[in-house]
Amino acid sequence: MRSLLSLSLEEDVGSGDLTTLSVVPTGLAAEGSVVAKQELTISGLGIFEPLVESLRQRANPDEEAESLRLVEALDEGSRVGPGTVLCRVQGTARALLIIERTFLNFLGRMSGVATLTSEYVSVVAACGSATRILDTRKTTPGHRLLEKFAVRCGGGTNHRMGLFDAVLIKDNHIVAAGGVAKAIFTARSSVLSGVKIEVECDTSEQIEEALAEDVDAILLDNMSPDQVRRAVELVDGRARTEISGGVTMETLEEYARAGADDISIGRLTHSAPSADIGLDLALAK
Questions:
Q1: Is 226 a catalytic residue?
Q2: Of residues 58, 79, 88, 138, which has the active-site annotation?
Q3: What is d(CA 50, CA 6) in angstroms, rounded to the nearest whole number?
Q4: Quick one: CA torsion of 139, 142, 144, 149, rounded to 10 degrees?
Q5: 170 belongs to the catalytic site
Q6: Residues of CATH 3.90.1170.20 domain(s) within the chain?
Q7: Could you tell me where in the chain the CATH 3.20.20.70 domains are found?
Q8: FRET label pair with 176: which of 33, 80, 104, 142, CA 20 to 30 Å apart?
């Protein structure tokens, strides 16, 4: 994460903020109020302090990074309305203006993910379903930890972090391995004890084959709500069931009522719009 923050500052500030360094006097004390311009779920305020540390490591005294500090902040995961002050930051006007866009980019992106996630979670809760909303690996390259944290802020649940922390046997793995049972057997004989094994199933025959191999979870891929309902009845609690593919905000309630344990939604991270957040600067009195 720290490497990402440093890279992002380098991308924006580069050799120096030409406008701020030429226009704003040195040592001018100021305060910034970070304000929500829409209803949103907060995620990303914790980025400020490590981002300040990355600015300090640039070791450019003209940027006055040592002056920056977070003095007040709401909790991550809070749902707020437009006009709400999310946090207050103090420092010199130079430092605040230099760090402003990079901080708001992260905060807007993460809060956008959290906000969209909370909308999905709210729909499921409203219909009385216990189905969890899961994220996927369809994240912005390099930003996965931050985006998955944002999903949690929105009330969602993290699926596997990457290829290294669980076995998920998908259709192409099944083709390459020579079948469902063979893929599961080979995986179980190769990975450490305790590593969860999930397999993607498109048909009832594949589900039966996977259950016979005692898998931990079954991914019901691109099934209709009625197909999911029948698949959940077939599994009958012998493994966790996860829905993937074809789930939209319009179809979410019907899928949630189908009885699966989880619904994974790539849109949470690959299509969430950034939240509208701004910073209002005021000179210290």
A1: no
A2: 138
A3: 9
A4: -130
A5: yes
A6: 2-116+273-283
A7: 121-270
A8: 142
Cβ pair 107, 149 in contact under 8 A: no
Tell me whether residue 101 is one of the annotated catalytic residues. yes
Q: Residue 194: pLDDT above 90?
A: no
Q: What is the sign, positive or negative, of the torsion defined by CA atoms of 236, 242, 245, 250?
A: positive
Whether domain 2-116+273-283 has CATH 3.40.50.1820: no
**Between 68 and 246, where is the model more confident?**
68
Q: Which CATH class is domain 121-270?
A: alpha beta
Tell me which of 79, 101, 230, 238 is the catalytic residue.
101
Is residue 280 very low, low, confident or very high in pLDDT (cuts 50, 70, 90)? Answer: very high
Cα 197 to Cα 193, 209, 251, distances in angstroms: 10, 14, 28
Flag the least confident range among 126-135, 190-199, 275-284: 190-199
Tokens encoding 267 = 């849109």
Catalytic residue, candidates 88, 137, 144, 170: 170
Catalytic residue among 200, 209, 242, 262: 200
| Residue 196: active-site member | no
